[in-house]
């Protein structure tokens, strides 16, 4: 149960108060406002506030590029043009604020995105709750033999059981130590010190606010197949939100970022030779083995 | 007349569409939404969108500092505490988007604030309008003799008349040259080149979006007595907006920033000696002439 | 002659003082240090200071990715891998500081890059010099008929003569007005007001400091064929500097950014069908006319 | 012993290679380059690279404010003026790169400063070392009864012994679990998952690069009495480095930031009444209890 009673009360209260506004309103996002989207075993993402919509992107772009843009393109076409040509400032005109509950090791990856505003629960002020991320069996994977940062086969049998036991027992013991150190009848250790004992799968919470441009950058990197599975789960949940919020922008983002290919100069030369009917080998192509493999995968000739 | 008919139509349309939202709503700011606030002779500021309110600042702070803060302080007290102790992230949780029309030389000072999103009308794409800032007589001041960046006495008589004539005639001639170079029956020069001829008092426009923390930093620097009078006029107009938007934050900002004094270590030593009844002279105080003068002004002993 | 005697003296002095350091040193960049590279008619770029080199990029990456990276890749290969996979922080470990003299309208485009530190000459404090950018004949181009932000054919004959006369005379008159308003025997107008009369082709100067990652982003956007020719002249000058400074990074930047193609998901589908021997028409491809044109150009089938 | 043999080798090699440069060189900082400064039980700070010096701050300020500044102030006076009047960009012209080894919970506070470049060792790629921060006895303090984020009395006797035992045993067990999960003969769990079990007092390492302005902001907040003692230890170590690097800037920073007082508008009114000889009570002063207490402390009337 990821939400405290107090938080549930706040959500009900927030969803109970509707008011009139002259600002842009996105009904599909209003339907999501304040309500938690579950992620992992105890985590969540919920939209707390937002500013702007697809039309706000268009409005900003039309200020920059002037009246001439009005006749030639409809909104969807303009947004696609902006995305294709790496225009970023119109997308900065939309803003979103999320409440996120996430394991500490995911928070450490997430916070590397510097262009956002964050208010995180402080373990100097508050005693953290006894909630830890314990992976589902299908997420317990072995170290990849070929990729230093990746996962290989899913663990089975005794191996999986051992890992789950170590994670659960370790978390329980660490939280027990935490409480023992904090105990006012005992050491009464300062909270800012006692939290040292807590492992990286404990859950933390924050408010996280960023603009649409930076959010898409986050989603591209953290939703990528190279990102750790746990942070991708958050990226996917947020992606669903963005799709509802700014559907035209999301469609352009899928075509020109998520599903797009970046092909190097030497890689394009290989493609052009292939298109001209030539059979091209890696030797002499100027590409390294890794580049060659990635390029062949892009054109469906991998493996 | 600072607004085109098209813009007036957009404003009327924007103010004509009200919708329900579950987000925080600030009625006093809704009343201002989209409507232009005149600044200088042809400039304006208008609020296009906003996110959050005083309660959003409090909400974020309470996440960080935990339940313990709930009982001891009311919202106003918490906001004052945050401001006094330089906590910045809770104020980042509010965001505002402004449409601003301003002379180019003011835009050049403004853009130095890097933590904002901007979409400016592009003179590569559009032909700029024939609108120039011509100072009102009371704003036409001589160079200060004592302050290299300041203004002295207001110009009078022939001096004022000469300056006004030069500014008006110069702007008219420059705009005439601009049109002549653009003329499709004549040179048809590229817009991106023709705009070179336009002087720095021509008006430009942009959408400018920033968070409340960065906005207050802007207002402190650009509303200061050392800032150029023209940009201060914009800072004052925005200050009125902020007062309506987040009244508790604004009151704390006035007390702890706008009206606060920053006193150096040596300056505090002087004050403590004075409070102990000692007569202190600058000699031996460790303060430079400038610092001494500034300190005496702070305690009402200037001049 | 773009440098004052005082600046020449400073350069000679700076190049005359060599000292020993334990920091990374790049001999090819030392050879350039402090010496101005001419750009446009009166502009310049010169390297004032730098931090780091290709090895600093590698050093930072190896900290992140650990000892395992040491055996599998040499420095060039690692840098290419980082660039290909959009790793940015290792490139942030290098920093450069430039002194730039540039027309004000170029400065306005340049300053939109927010992730840099800037100290610009202030026309509130100083009287600007009488130096204006007057395009060379081959840079005087007509407005493009097909591209709203672009240039078309070079002007010739009377058209060119008219534009040059208007630019030169306009600048001369504006500077004369400026001096007349500043005249201490006359109005003695404040400098911060008098500068309003100066056109956008006057030269300004600044110190500009940024890291290698942000610099490459700047070079990609401002060295692009869509950027205004005048700022591209600066991007090209800086590109030469970067090539000398971090040659491995520059080579990877050329392959994976400058000469790379970004191809959308639908675009890749078209290419894969073509590679399979199919003749593909735009109808039914899912690409807009603009996207189709850009894709055909990438594979050498434009026109 | 905080440094691996490999790191020691790198340091010796780095300190063994001197080369000539035309850049500004600070001999007192060269003496420190690459050499580790111990912090806490296993932590360190070492300067890896730097750019600029006090003269670089002055050089940038003189560009902005022009020739007029040359005659009236010497370098120290100009730097004091810049600091007093909150000019930030000249201080951005200096840059420093540090290698830091620090406990993970300190890293989490540190990373909240967003205006820096960071490359941290990745526990996805590398197996972390068995090194944990175990506080010295004098750093083991009870939770403060009056300050929710502070420490009270130092623990003694059995309380201290219990806490130390829990921290040491907990770290040992957690690291044992980590190794057991990674064991290639056993589960061979992916490193990115196994690191979940590690507590927040494990050491991590990063390269951290920032400019002098942002560094001073960091030092002011993290060297403050309200900051956690462990991060203050790092701030103090870096403060010593900055003092050697830019002594004029450091002196101004001490006077106008570290030792300066920020006094609110109502607080200044109280001081002025006191200076006029009046006896002022909190009632009627307009100050809250907290503000009054802080003000009295500033003028040595606390307690």
TrEMBL record, chains A, B, C, D:
Pathway: Pyrimidine metabolism; dTTP biosynthesis. It is an enzyme of class 2 (transferase). Coiled coil: none annotated. Its cofactor is FAD. Catalyzes the reductive methylation of 2'-deoxyuridine-5'-monophosphate (dUMP) to 2'-deoxythymidine-5'-monophosphate (dTMP) while utilizing 5,10-methylenetetrahydrofolate (mTHF) as the methyl donor, and NADPH and FADH(2) as the reductant. Belongs to the thymidylate synthase ThyX family. This is Flavin-dependent thymidylate synthase. It comes from Paralimibaculum aggregatum. The gene is thyX.
